[in-house]
Amino acid sequence: MAGRGRLRIYLGAAPGVGKTYKMLGEARRRRERGTDVVVGFVETHGREQTAAMLDGLEVVPRAIVDHRGASFTELDLEALLARRPEVALVDELAHTNVPGSRNAKRWQDVDELLSAGIDVISTVNIQHLESINDVVEKITGVPQRETVPDRVVRAADQIELVDMAPEALRRRMAHGNVYAADKVDAALGNYFRIGNLSALRELALLWLADRVDAGLQQYREQHDIDSTWEARERVVVALTGGPEGETLIRRAARIAARSAGGDLLAVHVTRSDGLTGADPARLAQQRQLVESLGGSYHQVVGEDVPNALLAFARAENATQLVLGGSRRSFLSMLLTGPGIGATSIRESGDIDVHIVTHSQMGRGRLPRVQGSLSRMRLIYGFGLAILLLPALALLLGSGSDTLNLTSTVLAFLLAVVVVALVGGLWPAMLAAIAGTLVLNWFFTPPTRSFSITEPNNAIALSIFILVAAMVSSVVDRAARRTRQAARSAAESETLATLAGSVLRGETALPALLERVREAFGMTSACLMERVDTDELTETWRSIASAGTPTCRRPEDGDAKIPGRDDLVLVLQGRSLAADERRLVGAFAAHAAALVDRARLTEAAAEAKPLAEADKLRTALLRAVGHDLRSPLASAKASVTSLRSSDVEWSPAERDELLETADESLDRLSRLVDNLLDLSRLQAGVLPVFTRPTALDEILPGVLGEDAADVTVDLPPGLPLVEADPALLERVVANLLANAIRYSPPGRGPLLTGSSLGDVVEIRVIDRGPGIPAEDRDRVFAPFQRLGDTDNTTGVGLGLALARGLAEAMGGSLRPEDTPGGGLTMVVSMPSATMNDVPVPGRLERGAL
């Protein structure tokens, strides 16, 4: 079976930069090298230079797809799969296929080609990427209805940026190399302004830089490269929750800003071995400051703060680490040894460490709750035992004439207690044993001998050892309890961060798994679900993952934490301690809850159309009884009268009865059509296919028998609109019918239009009673006839259907007051585009 094909994408910052030209150039080079290359679909947009590049290349004929009475050409996927070339050219990756095609989107066609082992070369513009679609619309003002998921483009084996300076692209357009001459002025004055092109170019460069950076990070992980590669400045700032945090963040942000594209990462280490007391409110404020400066906030759990900081910095390929000067006093540093800054500098390797001074330096020490006895305390305890006992023996020996054995034993007992408080059990036991020997040799008769003749002396020495052991045991137990309390505080802080992320809406599974991976220093985290089980094997699938490599089975991981019976959180990187497993279990349970909530949301979304349909049917049964019976009754009465042999009808009377039957059946047909369309809208199954449409094209169907009552005033030069002609005709017809119904005699409605930016507005203006502002939303509800008291004027579907159809085509419908009294209904539709760029058009007035 052939392996998966390779995908190469030419990414452009804007239309016209030469993506298709570059793609064809690559195809010609490969053909010259003997590669079997065919053109699956290439759009030249009438550009002669691009069309000339097709010469000599094999082109697979396009498929003809019929839709709504029109024929369109699309990529012939079946023919291309049957041809099976080595390389296929497929232009415009984000293109939406005509309804009736094999796939809805062209990128899905490309995925099938890749699965068949065919290499594909394609093109896409930056504005079509889903993640920045809204940003592009804000910059250019042009909505992009065709998008491609970022994951599709990121998964490409090669991405090449096709770049061009904004001035050069505008010159190229002015020379007619992009669009026809009659479209150039409008394009240069709208989409292709210098500012728009510069912003799009920056978006393209930054997006591609992020993708390259992700690829570099993956390469370093695959090859176990721990050293820092200074391809891009990354500044990590360490936060303790102290008052100096804002100073450090701003200083780190300035350092990152000195390099274009520099990243700012803030990290707080929750120490399981003692560092607690960080102010959560202050950390939250500092997190907001980091994010407002364009950085990201991270939290990790570490046994040793310097090592945790440096491990995080190396994992993120950081180039610089910013630390605050120590707030500990000089005496505190003498007693506890080198601090975080000194240790980080010594162990940093090729990461630059900045120690930033601040106003809190030397004004105390970080709030610490001692957990387990550190190595330094053990060293101090043994050292104190070795030095204190000889010194005490010399001191007491010089005053042996005035002190009795009881006082001497108590003095040595005090020394042992001091050693126990400093060093814990083992230094205290050493001091107790050594103290017993010293007391026995120097102070217990007979001296200079280890024999004890007095029973009281033996009892005193035994009590001495027992008290020393008990005190040291209490100290050790207190240290163990303090360590557990510190660990619990660290876990609580991590869970508080999790809860905060949930409250802020950061509930996506990948984000949660990334937090688990970061917090526990793992290489990857994967949530897996058991989908099938038989007597011999279990089948698992990955729901979401973070980091690399991704596990395929729970057995691939170093730690497996169950979220529930069929869900397990799999971590790779190291094994977990028992207390860590308890904390990760909370994350696993929350991840399982997220999965359940997502599925319930999907089920609710699937049930919503059914509920809406039920609601619609209920309202229909309540509201349309008379409206269905009335035209049926009129038509039946007319037909029955005509068929009656008891009455001799005159020709005029027969015509009148036929006209009544005809009008009743027309009324019934319109009602049924509206009901069916509204039902399809509610269920989301109404087919919509937009194309450039002239407003004159819809007027013949809009203007019926009441055309004499309607004034049409469409200005010349209106652009084409992107709409489904049949649906737009229904929208305007329903609005005109409503306006005619409420217009006073002799003052029929006015139909006019205007163009504003990239939007064409169609206005239906009447001089009727208007609608109060508080009732404007109600008039668009189905079966709502504002102010009607009977069922003789319809069931109130016209406006509801008009708004639904307009929104289905990407437009909108809103009511406005008519100056001087009345109601104006405004239909806003996007102007037609060519290659996603507004195309100026001219609406030629036809005979009405």
Low-confidence stretches: 364-372, 785-795, 834-848
What's the mean pLDDT score? 76
Overall helicity? 40-55%
Beta-strand content estimate: 15-25%
The radius of gyration is: 40 Å
Spatial ordering of strands, largest sheet: 3-2-6-7-1-8
The computed structural class is alpha/beta
Number of helices: 25
Indicate the overall shape. Answer: elongated
> Which quaternary structure do these chains form?
single chain
Query: What is the end-to-end distance?
Result: 64 Å
The total strand number stands at: 26
How does the major sheet shape up? 6 strands, parallel
EC number: 2.7.13.3
Protein name: histidine kinase
Membrane topology: Multi-pass membrane protein
Keywords: ATP-binding, Kinase, Membrane, Nucleotide-binding, Phosphoprotein, Transferase, Transmembrane, Transmembrane helix, Two-component regulatory system
What is this entry, summarized?
With 848 residues, the protein is an alpha/beta fold. The chain is elongated and about 150 Å long.
Summarize the structure in words:
The chain is elongated. The strands form 7 sheets. A 6-stranded parallel beta sheet has the order 3-2-6-7-1-8, sandwiched between helices. Helix 16 packs parallel to helix 18 (455-503). It is an alpha/beta fold and 848 residues long. A hairpin with a 4-residue loop joins strand 14 and strand 15. The chain is 48% helix and 17% strand. Residues 623-833 form the Histidine kinase domain. InterPro entries: HATPase_C_sf, HATPase_dom, His_kinase_dom, HisK_dim/P_dom, HisK_dim/P_sf, Histidine_kinase_KdpD, KdpD_sf, KdpD_TM. The chain crosses the membrane at residues 378-397, 409-438, 458-475.
